[in-house]
């Protein structure tokens, strides 16, 4: 395996690893957003129940205070995950950019090798032509 293939393989692995990490972060954010939506739905259902049941109405304020507290925690978690997601996206963009640079350098090196081989072949043919003229 050439150094070019090694560099490309390593950078591709890094990109794939970062893509998996980003997917995991996005899944965590989605789960937190679902929990937030479910919490809001539960609070709405409990409020509706409290309108029909006097005992539930008496406990509603305490329940809603707990809901506000849980909502704040989930929103803080979503904010934190959002920051982590932004960092992961930046790291992925940088890794992808590096991979493309490695691929480009490898292609330039391959083209240079082909040109050099062509130059050597032309020089060898020129030498053979000169020998056949003089010989």
Question: What this model shows, in words?
Answer:
The protein is rod-shaped, with a radius of gyration of 32 Å. It has two helices and no strands. The longest helix is centred in the last third of the chain and has 81 residues, at 54-134. Helix content is 97%, strand content 0%. The chain has 135 residues and is mainly alpha-helical.
Major sheet characteristics: none
Q: How many structural domains are formed by the residues?
A: 1
Number of strands: 0
Unreliable stretches: none
Report the principal-axis shape.
rod-shaped
Structural class assignment: mainly alpha
Per DSSP, what share of the residues sits in E-state strands of 2 or more residues? under 5%
N→C terminal distance: 43 Å
- Gyration radius (Cα, Å) is 32 Å
Compute the average pLDDT. 91
Order of helices and strands: HH
Helices, by number, come to 2
DSSP helix fraction = over 70%
What is this structure's SSE topology?
Elements: H1 3-52, H2 54-134
Helix pairs in contact: 1-2
């Amino acid at each position: 395996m050439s150094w070019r293939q090694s560099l490309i393989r390593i950078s591709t692995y890094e990109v794939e690893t970062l893509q998996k990490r980003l997917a995991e972060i996005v899944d965590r954010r989605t789960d937190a957003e679902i929990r937030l939506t479910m919490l809001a739905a539960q609070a709405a259902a409990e409020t509706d129940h409290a309108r029909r049941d006097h005992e539930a109405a008496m406990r509603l304020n305490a329940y809603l205070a707990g809901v506000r507290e849980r909502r704040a925690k989930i929103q803080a978690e979503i904010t934190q995950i959002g920051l982590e997601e932004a960092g992961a996206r930046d790291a992925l963009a940088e890794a992808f950019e590096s991979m493309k640079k490695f691929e480009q350098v490898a292609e330039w090196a391959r083209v240079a090798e082909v040109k050099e081989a062509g130059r050597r072949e032309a020089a060898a043919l020129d030498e053979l032509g000169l020998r056949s003229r003089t010989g």
